[in-house]
Amino acid sequence: VCGDGRSIGMGKKNGDGEEFNFKFDLLLAAAYVSDAQYNRNVPFKTSPRAIRLYYFYNHWTMQAATYFFISVHLSLALFEKPALFPLPLLATSIAEVLCLTAFFGRLVHFAKIIPQMVFWKDTKNICIMVTIVLTLVDLILYRSLEAVNIHCIRWSRALRPVFLINFPESHQIRRAFRSIRNTLPDILYVFLLFTFSLLVFSLMALKLFGDRRVHSWQFLPVSSPKFGHCLPCSNTPGVMPAYDFNWWYSLYFITYIIINTYIFMSVFLAVVYNNYRKHLKNEIRKLAYLKRHKMIEAFNILKVKVGPEFVVEEAQWRRLVRTVAPDMSLRHLELLLRISDEGQTGRVDKMNFLRLADLLNIQVVTINIKRHPLEAWAPQIYKSSASLLVQKVVRHRIFVWVFDVIILINAIFIALDEKIPFISHAEWLFLSLYVIEILLKLYTYEPRAYFGRKQFWNWFDMLIIIAALVATVANATIQSASKYNSQQILDIILILRILRLLRVIISVQRFQVIVTTLINIGPTMLTFGGHVFVAYYAFAIVGMEMFHGKVQFFDPNFTAPDALVCGNPALKGSAFSRGRYCKNNFNDLASSFVVLMELTVVNHVLLLADGFALVTHQAAKLYFILFHIVVVVIIVNIFIAFILEAFFVAYSLEKSEVETAIEKKIQELGVGIQEEEVQDGKPTDHVDTKDRGDNKRKALEGLYCRIPSRKYRTVDTLLQRMCESEIAPEDEGPSLDVILNFSPSDIYPKNPNFETSA
Amino acid sequence: VCGDGRSIGMGKKNGDGEEFNFKFDLLLAAAYVSDAQYNRNVPFKTSPRAIRLYYFYNHWTMQAATYFFISVHLSLALFEKPALFPLPLLATSIAEVLCLTAFFGRLVHFAKIIPQMVFWKDTKNICIMVTIVLTLVDLILYRSLEAVNIHCIRWSRALRPVFLINFPESHQIRRAFRSIRNTLPDILYVFLLFTFSLLVFSLMALKLFGDRRVHSWQFLPVSSPKFGHCLPCSNTPGVMPAYDFNWWYSLYFITYIIINTYIFMSVFLAVVYNNYRKHLKNEIRKLAYLKRHKMIEAFNILKVKVGPEFVVEEAQWRRLVRTVAPDMSLRHLELLLRISDEGQTGRVDKMNFLRLADLLNIQVVTINIKRHPLEAWAPQIYKSSASLLVQKVVRHRIFVWVFDVIILINAIFIALDEKIPFISHAEWLFLSLYVIEILLKLYTYEPRAYFGRKQFWNWFDMLIIIAALVATVANATIQSASKYNSQQILDIILILRILRLLRVIISVQRFQVIVTTLINIGPTMLTFGGHVFVAYYAFAIVGMEMFHGKVQFFDPNFTAPDALVCGNPALKGSAFSRGRYCKNNFNDLASSFVVLMELTVVNHVLLLADGFALVTHQAAKLYFILFHIVVVVIIVNIFIAFILEAFFVAYSLEKSEVETAIEKKIQELGVGIQEEEVQDGKPTDHVDTKDRGDNKRKALEGLYCRIPSRKYRTVDTLLQRMCESEIAPEDEGPSLDVILNFSPSDIYPKNPNFETSA
């Protein structure tokens, strides 16, 4: 069936002399297609065994196991000295060796899938192997030295996040790391200039105000992207009083802040953002071309010549899809075929074949407008005029407004003193009103549509109310039994009550761009969390090795003299102990994380640096400065750049529609349905549809391709489809080598035009 | 000569029945051309008298007078109660009336130039008139009430900056104001959302930590774009100690900062930047089309039909250019004609005529490579081998490096203690080395080229050294006479010494993009200064009316009990008096400015708000919050957006060349010279040119069009030429009405592509 068009040189190309059989050809193509579908840029071996291994490698159990071992490995720090929950050294060592073995196994598995050359070229793999070896060496060294009672530092623990970064499908984290690596040369020059400017200002301060106890070094944290000016507050007597005796001092200070904070930090942001955008675009372009390249290779394997052009036979196409997606329903498959083979000629041409990966990614839904369960159960009552009136009221806009007003009144009541009985009783009224609202909505709307997958706010609403109900009842029970309120439960109820206020936001149309964009970038922001976690982990381990036990926290009611100096006499009279920062210590992993988190958001890096320098060594300051530069200057700027980018894309797309070729075709064929239409849960959209009778509903039933709503797309998806829409359908793209070596500096057009450049 | 093509309906169009004569036609065209040249979008009357008035209106004396009256009017606040230099009320009133008369005169002058309808449509003019009337009313009211001893508020003083904004050619300030006005609706929604989020967090804080003396309102300034987290420092006992007794508090605080500081402030920045970019582009596009439109109108007035096409006769063209630029030299005119009339056909075609305005803007320089004065004066000595060797050494790269190293050594010496005699003597050595360097450079390079208009660093170098020399000698004189050092002079010398260090920067190539961009946006940053000045002035006047005399500053050595509470018993025990903020008062204009400046850069808005609320009324807090929102949130974000934009344009142009059509043509004709080539002052570029003999230099002499260096272009210029290069030469552009109503929302392409949208 698929003889002619086959790529003859395939066997030689892969370097293994295996027999080409029909099944293998299909598997090979299937592997290419599924790879294009997942957008991974790993060229893999194409023997049937390798493909089976490849599927197994990507199986969810294997991935879950990897994540499990990674989390065990990372959480070992909780049990090792200095431990939150101490365990014997033997236990943690065995656990670590087990984890390392698992990582090694995973790596070996991966090596079996892809060609040797590619495996050894990939820095990720080298990185993992080196880390495994280093960790083992360190472990053995530490244990043997421990045996003869010499204590040394377990430095390899700081390398643990390496496995988190390099193993799983954490594109985003790796991209952020690449972004940092690529931005470094550019940022270095800004940083040098910035350091130079700091130096100049420090010199000036040293000479002009040196005798007035203002140390130039104290200016550093002022110049963070947090733009925090803690100078006048963190060091008493502070800077502003200095203005009392010298007007010029004020001028110096303001110039300093304008230059080093506003201007330099904007330049930092510009450099970081510029690089972020450049690399983001380059990667997306690379992925798009790679996908095209792989789809063409798969087509070349399966193509047969019919008339003047090459095509893929329908039977072949079916088998391919079956191999790629074994659990696809027959109706789904027929729908895809109808889209791929419009003319029903029994064959799929090249252009349609190239779109297969996208087509497989499109969600197919069964529109099956169900009646309301109550309607099925008791149609007379549900369809009675009273019931219809209730439904009409609930669907009406005013119903939403009334509840917005109720929520706002509720907000006022929350702010009032809850000791007044009237107010605490009113809370029961509000709660019952909310419960009634939800019940009414469930009565009116079809429950399964109301709690659809993307009905974020309905879920939110429901969960908040149920939780509040449970907590309030629990509290009432406890209160009636023991005459005391449980403070924890009261706090939870309060937070739930306040969260309820958020619902008002969704009623205002204009807030939706902002809120939707924020919700869309939420998941990606979490991967940034992962990134920050990696930095925190490494710094926490180092910090624990450096500062463990140097600072103690005593209960505030404990009045021993040591409590005032955080258990370390070196801190006597320092700002650190005076400000009661004793809880900011590195005595275990949890405390270290809290300290680092605070350092990120609050500007007392200086105070802590001074404090810890007192208890250890002046070099300790370096640790804090390095942390400040890595996390605050670089990561925070990338975070801001990421949010800016998301909003710029959201704004530039506000008025336009980006449709892929497939979506257009699906719409033309009338087999698509907009995601918004599926969401029956929205009350305002469907006023009166009930009255128009069941005919329309019947006509709508069937299998449809769901066209994702524009609202719920991430920046990546949007950029990717923009990029793909710019690759002409007949464009074969450059060769694989060229694609893999795309450089970000090619992105800028040689002749920038008015639209692009600003 | 120019009969046929004349616009017949001109008389009717202008509504005045004046005779059309040759001169008038020319004047009209000239007015159009000069208007296009200056890019002003005011349609004006076209009678000869109006055109004469128009020239007079734009004469530098009139502009200088306007600026003079504006500054007098603004500085009146220094002499009015509460005054820095008190003057009788009569004197200031007379001065104010005089200024208002001058403003009114200027307005009447303007009304004579442009058609009545246009005059009354322009908000600027209405605004000025209303302000004049209001100020007069207020003045009369105040004086008459003062006469019967009733004191009221002179509220109209806060309106004074209106004249600064609306009168002079302060495009940038007006654009920033327009930017704010246009951004307001968009920003309002983010602001509401932000306020809502603050409210939710405040409610939570109030309930959860209300009994622990942490007031939710104190969180506000934490959420400024300065990203300042003064919370743990400004209010003792602070927030961090609160963490001692509740771990959840820490979590709350970190969530608060991540959401309200990082995320919301990024969204603010995104909204502001997006609007800034949109409006900037729209205005530039509008200007470009307006220029095209006016040039076409001028062409239509002067055109004659020769053969199949309309052209402008050479004689007519000459007369036009003579009218527009009366003081142009004949050689300059011939050069422009050669560019406009390539084929020397005796007529200028439409395309070339349309470029006239740009052509007139191009600077023409006489390349007239002069010999070094010493060479002319004593050629034997200057050309001797020893002299040539000196010149060669000075021109060599190593010479620059040696002095960079000397500067760095100097930096180390500055940091050391100057009490050591060796070090203070070394400073004399460094100073003499720098003087020798400058003398050597002046010996080698032609002095007029060395101090060219754009040789910023040469000027900088020279001025710093001369000032340091003068100050050092003055100090030595004083010292030898009175045995005391003058501290002021020593401080100045020190600053000069440190500024000298900046020179090292220009030696490093990679710093140049950053430094050049910063220097280029310098002038525009100053107009932002003007903008901030306007806001400061208005707030200072209001602040003086509200808080005048409420807080007193006493000399720190003065130990009266009042000194500790800033002269106001209400402040007893407040953070305001404890922190010795007494000098932060609104007792005169200078103090008010300093306070507002500090509020902009330092994050103690809260502390001052609390303090001033104590001495006046709780409503005083509103003043500080409003200031914070206007200046810090909006203006600072626009400032950051502006810097970001400048850098994005600089980066996207790094690899490309944007040439206008004229520049291309000038290059083709070989009558242009790159600005870089003119700058003979650069040492490294011209190594060995001396040796190649005088022939090349001779060949270069003559009149050239100077093509501005890409390095020294502002964002506006760059965007403008990009936009112009996109208007096709034959594109007549839309009608005037359409142009004037261009909307920023048209800017976004309907189908954003991969390049533009992110």
Care to give the gist of this entry?
The first copy, chain A, has 758 residues and is mostly helical.
State the helicity of chain A in percent bands: 55-70%
**Structural class category of chain A:** mainly alpha
Tell the overall outline of chain A. globular
Q: Of all protein chain pairs, which has the greatest interface, and how many residues does each chain bring to it?
A: A-B, 120 and 118 residues
Secondary structure tally, helices of chain A: 37
How large is the share of residues in beta strands of chain A? under 5%
- Radius of gyration of CA atoms of chain A, rounded to a whole number: 32 Å
Taking pLDDT < 50 over at least 5 consecutive residues as the criterion, the unreliable ranges of chain A are 1-21, 212-245, 679-698
Q: Biggest β-sheet of chain A: count, sense, barrel?
A: 3 strands, antiparallel
The main sheet of chain A orders its strands as 1-2-3
Total strands of chain A: the figure is 6
**Euclidean distance between termini CA atoms of chain A:** 54 Å
Count up the domains of chain A: 4
**What's the average pLDDT of chain A?**
72
As an assembly, this protein is homodimer
Pfam families (chains A, B): Ion_trans
Domain Ion transport (chains A, B): 54-278, 396-652
InterPro entries (chains A, B): Ion_trans_dom (IPR005821), PKD_2 (IPR003915), Volt_channel_dom_sf (IPR027359)
Membrane topology (chains A, B): Multi-pass membrane protein
